[in-house]
Each structure stands twice: as C-alpha cells, then as structure tokens.
# Entry
Amino acid sequence: MKPRSSKNTESSVQSSAKFQTKEKEESLLPFHPLPLFFPLPVSLNRKSKSFFLILNIFIFLQCSSLQEKPKEVYHKDIATTEKVVLSKIEEVRDSGIKSLSYMYLLGDGIVHSGSLGVDNKEQIKRFKIGSITKLLTGISLLQLQDNGKLQLDDPVSKYLPEVNVMPSREKKYREVTIRDILTHQSGFPSDRASGFFLSPEAKDPEILDTFRSLPQTLSQMEKNEPGKAHSYSNFGFGLLGIVIERVSGVGIEEYFQKNIFSKAGMKHSTLLELNEGSELVSGYSGLFWKTKTVRPVIRDLTAGSLSTTGEDMGLFMKAFFQSKRGSGLLSPSSFFEFHRIQKGPSSNFQMKLGLPVLMEERKSGDKSIWISGHSGSLPPFFADLIYDPESETASFLVGNTLSFATASIRPANKEILDIIYEYKTGLKLESPPLPERKNQNQLDGFYGLYVSPLGVHEVKQGNPPKIEMMGFDFDLVEKDNRFGTNLRLFFGLIPVKEKTLESMRIEFETWEEIPIFTMYSLNAAKGSWGFGVLVRPDFRLPEKSFLTTYKTKDPYSLISRVELKEDKRGFINAKVFYSLGGMENFNQFPCQLESESTLRILGFGRNLGERMELKRIDGKPVLLYSGIQFLGE
# Structure
C-alpha cells in the first residue's frame, strides 16, 4: 500500500505517508551493505568475513543502491514527482528499517513530511539525527557573530581559556580559531571517548553537567597542528557548545529553543531527552528480526544529540532559506558565508566545506551547482540531509534501525533531491566530468606502505602494479591520465564488473613534500575518504607483555576494549572495539612506538595521529587512550 498525502494550507505544512492498512510484515530481503562507518561484525568465521569484506568494498564505494535514472519528466508535474518520491521513501523503509521520518521541499515554501513504521501514531515520535546537529551549531555561532558577540576568526581561547593548558604534540602552534573547529581542521582529537555515552537513564541536569565538564578535560588531551589536515572532531563541536553558552549567557538548550526552534516554528526538537508533547522513537538492530537497542545518550550535545521530526526539519530548512531574504535564522551575508567554500589545508581535494556543511559540485546544464548537506550517525539512528540553497529544494531521511539497510538512506536521499531539483528547475543534476590532467601519475618513489582512514595499504611493483585495500589487491591501470582499478577475486580468475568500482580513480602526488594518494569515484569526491600517506615505519615493538587485550569496566563506554598485537607487516596494530547501538564493531589502527611508554597512531584524519600511553599498575599492563584507562589481561 503506497502512502497517501494530505495538505494543511493554514500552516503551509504537507503531511504525507499515512498508511491506510496495517503495516507490511518484514520480508527476508537480500543482504544490503553496511554503511561505511560500521566495521565488520566480530563473531564471524573466516569464510563469512571474506564475504563481508567483499560487501565492504561496495560500501566503501557507496554503490549499495545505484539505479538507472528514472525516465519520468518531473518539471512542474507534482503528481508524478510526489508519487515517485514517496515510492522511493517506502523502498528505503522496506529495505529493513523499522521506522523512518522524512521531509522534502519542492522549492515553493511548502513542507512535505511524514513517517513510516511508527508504532503509536497518536504519539509524536522524535528521531536522533546525529551530526546534522553540527549545522545548527554553526548557525548559532553565525547568529552570535551577526549580533557582534564574537568573530569566527577569534582564537577559541578568548572564550575557552582552558585551551591554553592543552599540550601540543610538537612545536608551539598558532592559535586555534572558532572557524578552525567549524571546518574540522583544529588539530583537536576526534573524540574524547571517556564519558561520551551516558547511562540511558541519565536525566537532563546530569547530561548538561557532563556536557559543561568538557573544558576541564583539555589538559588531559593533546592537540596537533591546526590547518594541517581535515580531521572530523566531535570533541571540537562539543567545545563550541560551551562557547555558545558563555558568549550568549544562556544554557545551550535554551539558546537553541529561543533562537532556532521557536523562530522556525519547531515544536518537537531538543538537544536533551525530554520534550513536552513528543518522545524519542525506540531504536532497533537486526536484519531478519529486530531487537530493541538502548537509548543513545551522549555528552557532546552540540556535536550530535539533536532529536527531531521530519516536519520540524522541514520548518527548519524553510526558515533557513528565508535568511536569504533577511527574515530567517541568519542575516543574508551569514547565509552566504555558511555556504561559502572555506579555506582548508593545502590540497587539491574536490571535497569542500562550508560552516560546517559539506558541499558537492554537480552540473546543471553548463552551470556548476553546489549541493549542500550532512549525514548523522548515532547508532541505531542514521540521518541524511541534502539541499540546494539556490532553488530552495531539500530532502531529509532518518531511520532507527542498525542494519545493512542503513546503507540505502544516503543514495536514496540523493536520488530524491535529483527528482525534486528537476521538478523545480526543469534541469537535471549530473556529476561533473573528471578534472583534466595532462600527465599520467608516475609511481617511481611512490611504492611502499601507506596509512589512511581506511587502514594500511601497500603499493606494489608489477605488471600491472597493484594497491592493497581492505585485504584485496587491486590492479592499477591507466585511465584518464590517472590510475583506475580492476579487481579480480577467487584466485584472480573472476573480474568484478561494477559501475562504481570501475569508475574509481587513484591519484599519486606529493603533499607538503610527502608522497600521498587520494581516491574518488562516481559517488565520492576526491578527498572525501581522506588520503593515504607514505610511511617509513621502524617496526620497534614494546615489551611483549604489552601486546595483549585491554578492557574497561565502564558499561557505557564508547570503546569497550583495545587489542594490541604485531601484524603481518611488523606494525603494532591497535584493534579498537566500539560499542554502538548494541553492536560491537572495530577499527584497526597501525601504530609506531614513539617512546618506551607511548604509541602513535599513524596517518592524518579522524583518530589518526592520536597517542596511546602504556604503563604498569601493580605489575599489570595498562593502556591509556582517549581519556579511558584500559586494564590488560
């Protein structure tokens, strides 16, 4: 049964997708790839892990739901447009997500919103939208700048003097600015895992107390050089919330309610857990059957705690777009600044950042269109927002189920915006052509071991040369004056033919005189996966008893355990296990011994470059990482 639509002309809100009959039963659908941020399940045999690794390659390339462009003509045809948009939303829900909330704007100021699969339709249910919260944090800071309370290029120490006691990794660095944090180039740690998750039963006063304790931890953290590389930082955005409180003189929830939610007409949104007239929808995990997960309550409110509804998100975007005309959430100049491509580390990445919106270039005829957006993950919730500031079109999806199906949200949302944009403008959004390059990369001087946010890679000589990714060797073949990739599985006999895989390109270049490589494909701009940097490891190992498993006693810890061991290449490998939405997942970080008691995670990017400390307590090995003390077995 397809969802139906109804209009409320007085409030200019269109509510869609109310089921006329009982919900469809869950079907045993084929596997869908996990989203990029979920590593492999740990309780698998070797054969199953190989299967999941193959799936992860396709996840990594964001090709989980590539489909042919629809043939319908949408321009000014609202019946066809709504029918196809709502069918795509239902397809996402039917992929294995228990409940969805959605919103879309057709560029006419009317909010279209609804939900699917919500158990109690009489009760308004909020969904957590994770890091999309960061857009509202950026808007708050621009509001304060509009009111003359601060400047984005002020040193953050002006409002957070606690930053002055934060130790630096090496030399004395320049001051970190508010803009540095907004654009994820502050050099601050990615996360402070200690205390990141709170008890699911935590009350709002306790949550606010722990949020306001963040500056007290700065002396225990270590900063890298600002402006050196992009490194996504929830920790930094938590600190920005403290700046907002100190500059405005009011609590962060009060500030958001007064200056964003009320102005936009949002009645069911909060950074905290309680909101009159609505409640948080339950979260679930599982593919074939669904298990309720614990409520995710976090300390870093302004980094990712916002819960809201599809209708409220539509009202937010409507008020945000009104900023262009001087009657919205920002001044017209600040709205432009929010979407202006910000200066970043020296690189030729295609990935661009606003304040802090992510920006992707698309083509509409001969014109470049910069599509803006952000995703948010607070397992078991996953959300995606994408919009065009010029045509004032937007699409938003959020689901509450941790499973393979989550991978369908982002590509479906992108398809929906393409349809909506065509409805409004009569033009199609296309991917831009590859930038012209005159000379093919040369690999002399580029062979060796690299580390990136995706792990360890080896660039190997041969005919053709190869690059190892995720345990597989990809042939490097010349395409478009770059290297393309070919993958053969099962003893190198079976070639993998897949559109996005075949479109992947790798460029080798130097960055600050260091050999690096970058990757991109049909659905991912160059630089969006970070970059691999050539390393010359010395392979020294700590005393053997330190190569063991370390655990924490905190039942709500973001990191449940860490395993240190020597890998097949001689690296010290830190296998870091994360407890997310009731599931345990892991990342693997190659490390190098910096001193007898210090390990350094290699590379640049999220969690890379961070420090781990080794010590003994009562003769037993202890690991200190991200503010947590882990006890060795």
